[in-house]
Amino acid sequence: MLDESKPLFIAVAEQIEDGILDGTYPEDTPVPSTNELAAFLRINPATAGKGLHRLADAGVLVKRRGVGMFVAHGATELLRQRRRDSFARAYIVPLLREAAHLGIDPRELTEMITKEASR
């Protein structure tokens, strides 16, 4: 359910992000309220709220006064781009650095990746 290796509010935000990316929460539709999230996840409502507000601050959610939080227009692409950038920093940059240390040029590295992907 929630990744317990991270602060709970970040895990809540990431769970909502995952739902946006997988289509559970399409753009312009509501996400669960603070109280619904808190009850479902059995966490403090303030923690759930902090996760939702983090997404609102990032432009992923928009608050509609008296109605709740909704997935912002363009949120799916925004999240994809953020995750791609994060993926590159976490995996591609270290991969290229290690390949350079081993004398593997980009063409050879591409061949290695293609070969592994076809398995």
Explain what the structure shows.
The protein is mainly alpha-helical and 119 residues long. The chain folds into two domains: 8-73, Winged helix-like DNA-binding domain superfamily/Winged helix DNA-binding domain (Arc Repressor Mutant, subunit A); 76-117. The chain is 63% helix and 7% strand. The chain contains five helices and two strands; from the N terminus they run αααββαα. The chain has helices spanning 8-21, 34-41, 45-57, 75-102, 106-117; strands at 61-64, 68-71. It has a two-stranded antiparallel ribbon. Strand 1 (61-64) and strand 2 form a beta hairpin. Helix 1 (8-21) packs across helix 3 (45-57) and helix 2 crosses helix 3. The longest helix is centred in the C-terminal third of the chain and has 28 residues, at 75-102.
Sum this structure up briefly:
63% of the residues lie in helices and 7% in strands. The protein is mostly helical and 119 residues long. The chain has 2 domains: 66 residues, Arc Repressor Mutant, subunit A (Orthogonal Bundle); 42 residues.
Features:
single chain, 119 residues, mainly alpha, Arc Repressor Mutant, subunit A, 2 domains, two-stranded antiparallel ribbon, 5 helices, elongated, DNA binding, DNA-binding transcriptional regulator YhcF (GntR family)
Helix/strand layout:
Blueprint: H1 8-21, H2 34-41, H3 45-57, E1 61-64, E2 68-71, H4 75-102, H5 106-117
Keywords: DNA-binding, Transcription, Transcription regulation
Organism: Brachybacterium fresconis
GO molecular function, one term: DNA binding
